[in-house]
Design a protein that fits this description.
The chain is α/β, with parallel strands linked by helices and 356 residues long. Helix content is 46%, strand content 14%. It has one domain (48-355): Aldolase class I (TIM Barrel, Alpha-Beta Barrel), CATH 3.20.20.70. A 4-stranded mixed sheet has the order 9-1-10-11. It starts with a helix and ends with a strand.
């Protein structure tokens, strides 16, 4: 088996594309260090600069009310729950002002699928931000956009165009979980299927918006389904070229209906490395310190990652699942530099803003 996996690694190192079966074999059987070394070599080929990027931003959750009620989520509340909220414009703007003061260049605004919030509400939100602040709005995941299309009776394209006209600059990859409907039916039966998620993304790409792609793993999916997720992102990227980055992160089980153990650090690194090897057309792979911590994210820089994600001045969803990791900017800089790289602040499109 080791001879076969080494043969697959050599194939990728010679520039050939790997199949679903080959990726699954690597994830299942490849030697841990050989897998990491191969991913690191591909990373150096695709990103030859000895630099690791990061963005200064804030995750703002405008509401925790959600009709999806996914089994892996500890953040959502029903509409009549005493902890349910919808963020006021004043509170939203206060968070934005604090972000800008701290050097932030990007807002990641997401929330639950609130039954009463309309497309007009979000257009007003976006215009209110753009009228007051010069900041990139990287917001509203595919499930949110699909929900708005359903509630308004409009097409996905029309909804995206209206949000774009109001100030939306790019779309995050949230809600992907695992891009396979067997898994989705078990962990999020009320959420859109993988084809709908991808339709939102490819539609956005066609009208000029860039997006990211995520994967939440370490729950009920098989190893083959993880790699299938990567293949489906790769296929869409062949078609549109609109994904700027891939962000795999491990499931945080505490306080969730789904429960379980989540992924180990070794499992996380193996999955990250296979993602770098499989996604030959996605330029950036992001390390996830949010669920794995800063030290594991630092190791991930030798397993195929070239980006340290964001300073994430605020994060509520993973925190609700019992993960309390916080990594301030000085620690991000230390982790990157201590690993032997140059730390570079970037914008949403991975353009360099400041070299430390």
């Amino acid at each position: 088996m080791q001879a076969k996996t080494m043969e697959i690694l050599e194939k990728r190192l010679h520039g050939e594309r790997l199949s679903l079966e080959e990726g699954t074999m690597l994830l299942t059987h490849a030697d841990f260090l050989a897998l990491g070394q191969a991913a690191d070599r591909i990373r150096k080929h695709m990103r030859p600069q000895k630099a690791v990027t990061f963005v200064i931003d804030r995750n703002i959750n405008y509401t925790n009310v959600c009709t999806c009620q996914c089994k892996f989520c500890a953040f959502y509340r029903e509409e009549n729950h005493p902890e349910a909220y919808v963020l006021s414009e004043a509170d939203l703007h206060a968070k934005i002002e604090e972000t800008i003061k701290l050097g932030g260049t990007q807002l990641l605004i997401q929330g639950g699928l609130h039954p009463e919030l309309t497309l007009t509400y979000f257009e007003k939100m976006l215009r209110g931000i753009k009228n007051k602040y010069a900041i990139h709005i990287h917001s509203f995941s595919p499930p949110e956009i699909w929900d708005l299309a359903h509630k308004s009776g409009l097409s996905v394209e029309t909804v995206i165009r209206r949000l774009q006209a109001a100030g939306l600059d790019s779309i995050p990859g949230g809600g992907a979980e695992i891009l396979d409907d067997r898994v989705r039916q078990r962990i999020s039966p009320h959420k859109i299927g993988w084809k709908q998620w991808m339709e939102v993304m490819t539609t956005a790409h066609r009208i000029g918006l860039r997006t990211t792609a995520t994967m939440m793993f370490g729950h009920i999916e098989t190893l083959e389904e993880r790699v299938l997720h990567m293949v489906r992102v790769r296929d869409a990227q062949d078609e549109t070229g609109g994904f700027t980055a891939f962000i795999p992160w491990s499931f945080a089980p505490k306080h969730t209906e789904l429960g379980g153990e989540g992924a180990s650090g070794v499992d996380y690194l193996r999955t990250l490395a296979v993602a770098r090897l499989m996604l030959d057309n996605v330029p950036n792979i992001q390390a996830s310190w949010v669920t794995q911590g800063a030290k594991m994210a630092q190791v991930a820089l030798r397993f195929g990652a070239n980006d340290f994600g964001s300073t994430m001045l605020e994060e509520n969803v993973v925190r609700a699942a019992g993960v309390q990791t916080r990594v301030p900017l000085p620690e991000i800089l230390h982790c990157i530099q201590d690993a032997g790289y140059e730390a570079v602040q970037r914008n949403t499109f991975y353009e360099w803003l400041h070299v430390y």
